[in-house]
């Protein structure tokens, strides 16, 4: 009998030890998984560094591969850039890309949204004889592009499923015989993969030596690893096979290294010249905002944020998970006086376009969409903020990076439920493969008050880390974080859980918090003096202990639901034995206005405001034309400093086409402005000193918050 007791006791002991070992193995396996992931990311990164090094070596050994050198088409290209496109100077990489395409090389371009990818194929299309074929995934994008080119006087057409027979015939004739004035032809990928007739016409065009280049826009749609995979894009590889001598240019706003490799393989362009711009958007201020209390509805906080930070004509996007959620959030925002509408794939094309157009013209402040919204949209003068739930950061990061190329976008605001609430969602995700791990990663990302928010993005895209320059909440308010020693509190929590488990009981997170409070009271004065933890800090501590494997979650299934309980984790003993200290990062003060002063926008001068009003007026009288297409913000800025009063001067600044169309109105406006400025200065006492002071006063009076133009470069 006695022996049996001893054996039973030892068995218990061994079982407990085994459990302990198992927990440790689990923790080690988790760590191993994380390290494996990072290992493959680092390997890919290294490979990329080596590839670009060797490409650079190859490039530099061949004289013609210096893409910034002088080329025979330089002066013609400059002329078209300025007089047709009204673009005064190239942006980063544009000239080099154009030169590579003109040198008949295949090219892969990764450049932010709004970075100016279109020019990289549209300008060569005009420089070359013949027709340029452009594949683009969405009808609305194609319509936008064709309309834009047509207003510039460029013969651009599209061939889509909605095209009439007559229209189709006209284009086919033009392809086959070179008749007509066709210069740029836009098609959806379906045309390539499904229409034999189209492909045979294209073949004839090529035979006649008239297919000048092929551009594949939004090329990431080819890759299954990308977010917007389109099955028809998979068949575009045929283009290079059928037309091997025609230069192919693939363009996208973001592509991880994996996607780039995939694209080169699928499109059969292994030797392409790659132009990759960094995913870093230094103009974006990233902020993770924790809901202030569980009771307060998150929608109130979003509404408060929008109202507090932006005026009604400053627009943004809110990303939601589901279509239903989009509709709900838009409705709730409208109920709070914010003009918002939803946008998702269940709506018909007309309804979607209507919402998009209103938003593009700043007549709708917020679009609430699923992550599908945003591909290829061009809204350089109005998109200022993006709001998403932090659980979605991996889903939305690509969009954010794409849209972040627009100089105006300034604030990315991730909403997070309180950490404790977030952890309670674990019961929903633990079924998924690696679901819990992902959730914990997100919690870790949010919980940290010191790690740069950008760091995670660089890691995601396999890019070396760059300086954030205080453009995220953690970097901006670094000095306001202090560390609080919570080792004692952690010990109390662990021993409390011991007690609970020994009594064959369980505790949920909430129960644990309550019991902790009682316990601390009981211990009263007998405990060493430690600082009191606020409720949120206590919750933060429990979450941190979960992340550090001191505690763990256990799931219990009932017929209807799954419950999560907190149990002792593999490292709990270390805390009890005093071998592990626990430090909590606490914020002493948080700025709640969304961004620090350094991230605030510049200001528009009086003349800039007038020009901005003029482009809006012209846009509403030219149905469908966006204000930015009439005058870009950069052009407005140039006009307001140079103040041209003659057509010749104006033409030098904005090119021939725009001068012919809007020159008269612009000159009138500037002359009127200069006169009124003169009058202001002449009024006695208007400026009790020099002219500059008078100007300053004038500017101040008219100042509104808007993006400064230097940042547009
Ligand atoms: N060098 C330049 N200087 C000034 N404006 C430019 C320049 N190049 C392009 N733009 C303008 O920038 C805007 C965005 O260009 P574009 O539509 O080509 O961007 P994109 O890179 O294709 O973006 P997306 O990924 O959203 O499709 C357009 O209004 C275009 O006229
Ligand atoms: Mg584009």
Automatic annotation (TrEMBL):
List the coiled-coil residues: 11-38, 597-624
Positions of the UniProt region annotated as Disordered: 678-713
Does this UniProt record's set of keywords contain Isomerase? Answer: yes
Indicate the principal place this protein occupies in or around the cell. nucleus
Q: Name one Pfam family in it.
A: HRDC
Q: Cite the GO molecular-function annotations of the record.
A: 3'-5' DNA helicase activity; ATP binding; DNA binding; four-way junction helicase activity; hydrolase activity; metal ion binding
Cofactor names from the entry are: Mn(2+); Mg(2+)
Q: Which InterPro entries match?
A: DEAD/DEAH_box_helicase_dom, DNA_helicase_ATP-dep_RecQ, Helicase_ATP-bd, Helicase_C-like, HRDC-like_sf, HRDC_dom, HRDC_dom_sf, P-loop_NTPase
What keywords were assigned to this record? ATP-binding, Coiled coil, DNA-binding, Helicase, Hydrolase, Isomerase, Metal-binding, Nucleotide-binding, Nucleus
Domain annotation HRDC: ranges: 601-680
Domain Helicase ATP-binding, first and last residues per copy: 98-273
Highest taxon listed in the record's lineage: Eukaryota
Q: Which reaction does it catalyse?
A: ATP + H2O = ADP + phosphate + H(+); Couples ATP hydrolysis with the unwinding of duplex DNA by translocating in the 3'-5' direction
Query: Got a GO cellular component term for this one?
Result: cytoplasm
State where composition is biased (Basic residues): 694-703
Q: Does the keyword Isomerase apply?
A: yes
Helicase C-terminal domain: residues covered: 298-458
Where is this protein localized, as stated in its record? Answer: Nucleus
One GO BP annotation is: DNA replication
Cite the EC number: 5.6.2.4
Q: What is its EC class?
A: isomerase
Q: Which family does it belong to?
A: Belongs to the helicase family. RecQ subfamily.
Q: What is this protein called?
A: ATP-dependent DNA helicase
State the species of origin: Musa acuminata subsp. malaccensis
């Amino acid at each position: 009998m006695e022996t049996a007791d001893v054996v039973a006791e030892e068995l218990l002991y061994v079982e407990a030890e085994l459990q302990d070992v198992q927990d440790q193995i689990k923790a080690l396996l988790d760590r191993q998984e994380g390290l494996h992931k990072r290992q493959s990311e680092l390997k890919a990164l290294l490979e990329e560094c080596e590839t670009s090094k060797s490409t650079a070596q190859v490039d530099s050994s061949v004289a013609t591969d210096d893409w910034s050198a002088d080329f025979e088409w330089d002066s013609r290209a400059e002329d078209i850039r300025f007089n047709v496109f009204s673009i005064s100077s190239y942006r980063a990489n544009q000239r080099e890309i154009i030169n590579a395409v003109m040198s008949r090389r295949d090219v892969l371009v990764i450049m932010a949204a709004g970075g100016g990818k279109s020019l990289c194929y549209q300008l060569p299309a005009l420089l070359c004889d013949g027709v340029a074929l452009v594949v683009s995934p969405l009808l609305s994008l194609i319509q936008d592009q064709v309309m834009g080119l047509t207003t510039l006087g460029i013969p651009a057409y599209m061939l889509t499923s909605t095209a009439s027979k007559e229209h189709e015939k006209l284009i086919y004739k033009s392809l086959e015989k070179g008749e007509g004035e066709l210069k740029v032809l836009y098609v959806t990928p379906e045309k390539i993969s499904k229409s034999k007739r189209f492909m045979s016409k294209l073949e004839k065009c090529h035979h006649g030596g008239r297919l000048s280049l092929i551009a594949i826009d939004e090329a990431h749609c080819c890759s299954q690893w990308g977010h917007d995979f389109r099955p028809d894009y998979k068949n575009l590889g045929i283009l290079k096979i059928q037309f091997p001598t025609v230069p192919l240019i693939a363009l996208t706003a973001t592509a991880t290294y994996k996607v780039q490799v995939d694209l080169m393989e699928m499109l059969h362009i292994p030797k392409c010249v790659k132009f990759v711009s960094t995913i870093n958007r230094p103009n974006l201020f990233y902020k993770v905002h924790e809901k202030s209390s569980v009771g307060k509805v998150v929608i109130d906080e979003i509404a408060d944020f929008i109202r507090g930070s932006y005026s009604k004509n400053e627009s943004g996007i809110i990303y939601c998970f589901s279509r239903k959620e989009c509709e709900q959030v838009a409705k709730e925002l409208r109920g709070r006086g914010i003009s918002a509408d939803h946008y998702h794939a269940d709506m018909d094309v007309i309804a979607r376009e209507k919402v998009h157009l209103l938003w593009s013209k700043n007549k709708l402040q917020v679009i609430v969409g699923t992550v599908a919204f945003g591909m290829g949209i061009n809204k350089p003068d109005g998109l200022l903020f993006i709001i998403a739930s932090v659980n979605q950061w991996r889903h939305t990061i690509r969009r954010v990076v794409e849209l972040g190329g627009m100089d105006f976008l300034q604030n990315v605001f991730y909403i997070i439920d309180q950490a404790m609430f977030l952890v309670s969602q674990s019961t929903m995700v633990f079924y998924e493969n690696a679901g819990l791990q992902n959730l914990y990663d997100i919690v870790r990302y949010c919980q940290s008050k010191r790690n740069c928010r950008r760091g995670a993005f660089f890691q995601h895209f396999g890019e070396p880390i760059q300086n954030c320059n205080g453009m995220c909440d953690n970097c901006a308010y670094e000095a306001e974080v202090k560390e609080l020693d919570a080792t004692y509190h952690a010990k109390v929590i662990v021993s409390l859980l011991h007690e609970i488990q020994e009594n064959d009981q369980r505790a949920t997170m909430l129960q644990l918090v309550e019991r902790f409070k009682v316990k601390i009271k009981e211990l009263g004065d007998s405990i060493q003096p430690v600082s009191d933890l606020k409720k949120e800090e206590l919750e933060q501590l429990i979450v941190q202990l979960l992340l550090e494997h001191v505690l763990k979650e256990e799931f219990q299934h009932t017929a209807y639901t799954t419950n999560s309980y907190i149990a002792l984790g593999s490292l709990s003993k270390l805390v009890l034995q005093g071998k592990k200290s626990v430090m909590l990062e606490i914020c002493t003060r948080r700025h709640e206005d969304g961004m620090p002063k350094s991230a605030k926008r510049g200001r528009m001068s009086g003349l800039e405001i007038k020009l901005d009003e003029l482009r809006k007026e012209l846009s509403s009288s030219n149905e469908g034309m966006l204000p930015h297409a009439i005058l870009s913000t950069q052009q407005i800025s140039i006009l307001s400093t140079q103040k041209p009063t003659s057509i010749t001067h104006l033409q030098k600044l904005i090119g021939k086409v725009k001068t012919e169309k809007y020159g008269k109105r612009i000159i009138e406006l500037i002359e009127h402005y200069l006169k009124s400025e003169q009058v202001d200065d002449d009024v006695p006492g208007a400026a009790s000193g020099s002219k500059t002071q008078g100007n300053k006063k004038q500017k101040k009076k008219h100042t509104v918050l808007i993006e400064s133009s230097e940042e547009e470069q």
